[in-house]
Amino acid sequence: MPQAHEEGVPAATGARVRGGEWPAVALSFAYFFCVLAAYYVIRPLREQLVAAVGSTQLPWFYGATFIATLILTPVFAWLIARYSRRIVVPLVYLFFIGCLFAFVPLFADPALIGPRALGTVFFVWVSVFNLFVVSVFWIFMSDIWNVEQAKRLFPIIAVAGTAGALSGPTLTATLVNIIGVAPLLLVSASLLGLAVVCIVLLGRWARTHGERRFEAAQEAPIGGGMLDGLKQVFTDPFMRNMAILLLLADGIGTVNYALVADYSGTALTDAVSRTAFAARVDQVANLLTAITQLTLTRWLLPRRGPGPVILVWAVVSMLALSLVVFSPDPHAPMAFGLPAVALALIVSRGLAYGMAEPARHSLYARVPRNVRYKGQNAVDTAVWRFGDTAIALGMNALRTLGVTTGGFASISALAALSAATIGWRMSRRVEATPAAEAQPATS
Question: Any transmembrane segments, and where (predicted)?
């Protein structure tokens, strides 16, 4: 069994990927690529819908999504309590593959349930799909890699998601005029099918070569109740802080998303231009994510830990939001033909996925398995969508009080400052705690 680095010794003193890790890193890379590509193939349909109806309707969409995640989160906890991960993790993806097949006839003939009903159902489903497939991916990663490996390898593995996020829109743009909209759902399903293959192969590798293979009951059902994950959010200090950190980060993203949706809906007059604009924003943000992952995060996370990574993300996001706050017209072109609201979204989103997400998920590698599979999933699904709903409702309320685009950007900047403080403190506390004594979860 390879010797792990001692705590506190920078992993960067050795090779980034060590000999026996290469097969699993390659499979993890392919797995995340397929998951994000599958999502981004179908994402433009959701984005066009939001721009068409305006951000004031987002609370309804987010509220329905929150209810859906609130129902599915205990279901996932119930499954993982009774069945091993080798059953539950592939089952999640097979469920979503089945849903994609079910949508095909509806997109082929929208009159079956009506275009508006289809749009609403699809928005909610895509939003749930995105959270669950990504959440389960990172839970699985935290379960097969140990703490030291997570800091070394998560920045590399995260690049695969960005590659998938860049490839997905390209696939859509290339294929939609050739095969139409409905068959794109089958393209997404095929990518998820490849992800399932990677999951099975990774499970086999972890059982024979993984650093965690000697841990007791590594693949056994976790036990406990179906509401454990939601309970952990309120009763476990670690999970409570992780939930607050995610809500602050979500506040930045949701506000920026709404401001850009408003710009797109007013400045762009047709579905084609709105879709093209959304694709351009996605491509630039994802490119920034890739650059950040390959440079700053890859260097900083193994050497300094999650705290400084989260701090840099928050500070740069504050600077980007200041463009909106101090711009005379945040909808006027500022750079590369993009307005300040779009630039703020690109920077904050690019660094959130390029820096904050790998850093945040590396913290979970220290916690017990019941927290990884229940609490982490609750935070990354139900808490996330609760934040979307609360923030969208709050924005509508603040609009009635006369808050404008600059005011919303100022609120986001304050959220970034708070996130930096909590992220730094959480990282310092967790890094000082031996992995075997990581915060216990309350079941």
Answer: 22-40, 60-80, 87-108, 120-141, 153-172, 178-203, 308-326, 332-352
Q: How many CB atoms lie within 10 A of CB 221?
A: 15
What residue spans of 293-339 are helical by DSSP H? Answer: 298-304, 306-326
The pLDDT value recorded for residue 321 is: 92
Measured in residues, the chain has a length of 443
HSE-CB of 146 using CA atoms within 13 angstroms: 20
CA distance 352 to 256: 12
* pLDDT (tens digit per residue) in 278-317: 778 877 888 898 899 888 888 888 888 888 999 999 999 9
Q: Which of 216, 185, 219 is nearest to 84 (CA)?
A: 219
Residues 194, 30 contacting (CB under 8 angstroms): yes
> What is the C-alpha to C-alpha distance for residues 433 and 49, in angstroms, rounded to an integer?
46
The Cα 199–Cα 97 span in angstroms is: 15
DSSP state of 438: P
DSSP SS3 for 333:
strand
User: Measuring CA to CA, which residue among 139, 93, 120 is closest to residue 363?
Assistant: 139
Judge whether 77 and 222 are in contact, CB under 8 Å: no
The rounded radius of gyration (Å) of the Cα atoms in the chain is 21
Other beta carbons within 10 angstroms of residue 197's beta carbon come to: 14
Half-sphere exposure of 129 (CA within 13 A, CB side): 28
Q: Which single residue is written with the structure tokens 């919303």? A: 408
Global pTM value: 0.74
The pLDDT-based confidence of 48 (bands split at 50, 70, 90) is low
> Which domains, ranges and CATH numbers included, belong to the chain?
21-209 (1.20.1250), 224-431 (1.20.1250.20)
User: E strand or H helix at 371, and its extent?
Assistant: none
Of 289, 366, 351, give the one whose Cα is nearest residue 317.
351
Instruction: Calculate the average pLDDT of the chain.
Output: 82
Count of H helices and E strands in the chain? Answer: 17, 2
Measured distance CA(183)–CA(201) in Å, rounded: 28
